[in-house]
């Protein structure tokens, strides 16, 4: 039985928003990346999965059951939304206790432990917390009942790099203990570090499902270089290059594939300057996935 | 149980304030009563100068003016007006709270059904309403005994007081069903004030006579205090109407809330 099972999941609202015929299986113990640009339908998919939104077609199941008909399956689910809001008047510790009270097990030790690791002051009022600290409350809140399925919706926004690292360590640890992780993001490199498999979603449709090992064989780079003399365009007409622009001495393109091949080509040119950057997801989609989708 | 406790705790402060407000209002009326009894005749003459229509709108009935219960029944619409605002507030805010405070992503992914959430919030609000009524009733009985010049009809007095509870229950239920149709309600008070004063005005302006069917439009007019004083009973048809309105509203709230899509915060 798959931990998450989406079958032809469809949610339509408005004209173009929503998701269409999303099919997805996430197996036990997996870290699954769910990636797509903002507004692609990641949140809609997650909210439908959690039972916050009713699908207009198809089905979404967690541990084989729909969250709408069997709300009790959510006992095994920990969810961290992209933006975290809690009852402002409460103290952090009261909120966490309230959260724990839904799971019918003693989470006191676990709360203390997680708070210590995330460097979170339990006695503060939630209204007094910064965005980053509220996010930490969200993380503790999502993990305090040791869920078997952890669902993360853009989890790193608002966390500083140090906390991001701690957070990923925490998630990896839970995964080693057996938790399945479903992780949505619009930052590819973030997902690349963690996930075993990844699904790409765009305009409400899954356009590609890949194993991370396949994806890692291909790294995506945006390369711009300035040569000593004019560069003939043919030099860079190799597999994996797209969006190629040459103008006098400058060349810029996107590259996907084995870096060594392209570096050899670059080495054949006498360089004055070069920059190799991580393209953002939108670019990757634009140049590689739109046609395949 | 945990949700009920959480909700009740969040209502304690506002309920205490409402109780204090209602008690202060009642105290004001009872404080005026002994003075009025002294000048009863003059006062009567003064009020006779008003046209019958004006007297009807203001709820003034000359025959009962000088009895404690009669006097109380005239002051009571203002109490029920305040009580209705409290109840409408409770009803409108209970299920819209998660969208206002953006805590839906917390509460609605817990392993509980939507119906259980509605029930917990419903019971918490009912607790607040019952506490308000119990405190108000105790306080007004105490005050009435303090200022009475002769014995008064306790049963009628209680019946008038109970109409506060019934009016509150109706407004609470209607507030609740209104709130589930909002995707996101930013402010509760303007809506509840509009609802309460709107229905009060409808009752006062459209249904002036006691046999006017327009009375069904305004819960404030379901309880005709003169009728209650004269007959010692409520008017059954209005009581049933009130109960039906409340029951249908609550049932619809469950139904709609259960099927509602909870979207991400914008």
Give a description of the structure.
The complex is a heterodimer of chains A (293) and B (266). With 293 residues, chain A is α/β, with parallel strands linked by helices. Chain A folds into 2 domains: 4-215, P-loop containing nucleotide triphosphate hydrolases (Rossmann fold, 3-Layer(aba) Sandwich), CATH 3.40.50; 219-292, 2-Layer Sandwich (Alpha-Beta Plaits), CATH 3.30.70. Chain A is built from 9 helices and 13 strands. Chain A has helices spanning 42-50, 92-100, 108-118, 131-143, 161-176, 188-194, 212-217, 259-267, 281-292, and strands spanning 4-12, 18-26, 31-35, 57-62, 77-80, 149-153, 180-185, 197-202, 205-211, 219-227, 241-247, 250-257, 271-277. In chain A, the strands form 3 sheets. In chain A, strands 5-6-7-3-8-9 form a 6-stranded mixed β-sheet, sandwiched between helices. In chain A, a hairpin with a 5-residue loop joins strand 1 (4-12) and strand 2. In chain A, helix 3 (108-118) packs antiparallel against helix 4 (131-143). The longest helix of chain A has 16 residues, at 161-176. The two termini of chain A are 28 Å apart. With 266 residues, chain B is mainly alpha-helical. Chain B has one domain (2-259). Chain B contains 11 helices and no strands. Chain B has helices at residues 2-38, 40-48, 52-58, 68-94, 97-100, 104-107, 114-147, 154-179, 189-206, 225-231, 236-259. The longest helix of chain B has 37 residues, at 2-38. Chain B is elongated and about 65 Å long. The model of chain B has no long low-confidence stretch (mean pLDDT 91). The interface between A and B is medium-sized, with 30 and 23 residues.
């Amino acid at each position: 039985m798959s931990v998450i099972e989406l079958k032809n999941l469809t949610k339509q609202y408005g004209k173009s928003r929503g998701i269409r015929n999303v099919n997805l299986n996430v197996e036990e113990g997996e870290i699954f990346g769910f990636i797509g640009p903002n507004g692609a339908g990641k949140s809609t998919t997650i909210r439908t999965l959690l039972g916050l939104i009713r699908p207009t077609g198809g089905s979404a199941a967690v541990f084989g059951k729909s969250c709408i008909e069997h709300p009790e399956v959510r006992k095994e689910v920990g969810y961290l939304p992209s933006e975290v809001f809690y009852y402002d008047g409460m103290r952090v510790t009261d909120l966490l206790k309230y959260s724990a009270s839904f799971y019918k097990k003693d989470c006191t030790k676990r709360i203390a432990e997680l708070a210590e690791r995330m460097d979170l002051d339990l006695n503060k009022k939630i209204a007094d917390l910064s965005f980053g600290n509220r996010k930490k409350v969200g993380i503790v809140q999502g993990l305090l009942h040791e869920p078997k399925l952890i669902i993360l919706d853009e989890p790193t926004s608002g966390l500083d790099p140090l906390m991001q690292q701690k957070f990923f360590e925490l998630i990896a640890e839970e995964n080693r203990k057996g938790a399945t992780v479903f992780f949505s993001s619009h930052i590819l490199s973030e997902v690349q570090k963690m996930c075993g498999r990844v699904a790409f979603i765009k305009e409400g449709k899954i356009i590609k499902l890949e194993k991370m090992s396949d994806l890692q064989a291909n790294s995506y780079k945006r390369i711009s270089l300035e040569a000593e003399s004019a560069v003939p365009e043919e030099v860079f007409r190799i597999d994996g290059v797209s969006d190629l622009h040459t103008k006098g001495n400058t060349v810029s393109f996107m590259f996907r594939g084995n870096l060594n091949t392209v570096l050899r080509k670059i080495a054949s040119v006498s360089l004055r300057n070069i920059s190799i950057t991580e393209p953002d997801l939108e670019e990757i989609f634009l140049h590689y996935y739109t046609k395949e989708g | 149980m945990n949700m009920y406790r959480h909700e009740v705790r969040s209502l304690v402060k506002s309920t205490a304030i409402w109780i204090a407000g209602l008690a202060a209002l009642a105290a004001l009326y009872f404080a005026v009563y002994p003075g009025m009894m002294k000048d009863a005749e003059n006062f009567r003459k003064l009020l006779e100068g008003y046209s019958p229509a004006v007297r009807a709108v203001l709820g003034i009935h000359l025959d009962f003016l000088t009895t404690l219960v009669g006097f109380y029944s005239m002051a009571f619409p203002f109490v029920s007006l305040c009580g209705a605002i409290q109840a409408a507030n409770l009803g409108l805010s209970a299920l819209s709270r998660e969208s206002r405070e953006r805590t839906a992503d917390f509460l609605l992914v817990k392993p509980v059904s939507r119906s259980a959430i509605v029930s917990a919030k419903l019971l918490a609000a009912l607790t607040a309403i019952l506490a308000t009524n119990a405190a108000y009733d105790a306080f007004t009985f105490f005050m009435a005994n303090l200022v009475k010049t002769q014995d008064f009809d306790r049963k009628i007095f209680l019946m008038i007081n109970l109409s506060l509870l019934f009016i509150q229950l109706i407004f609470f239920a209607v507030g609740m069903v209104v709130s589930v149709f909002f995707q996101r309600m930013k402010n509760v008070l303007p809506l509840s004030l509009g609802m309460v004063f709107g229905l009060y005005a409808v009752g006062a302006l459209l249904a002036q006579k006691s046999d006017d069917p327009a009375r069904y439009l305004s819960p404030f007019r379901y309880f005709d205090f003169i009728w209650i004083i004269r007959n010692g009973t409520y008017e059954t048809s209005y009581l049933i109407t009130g109960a039906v309105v409340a029951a249908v509203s609550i049932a619809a709230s469950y139904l709609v809330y259960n099927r509602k899509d909870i979207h991400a915060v914008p």
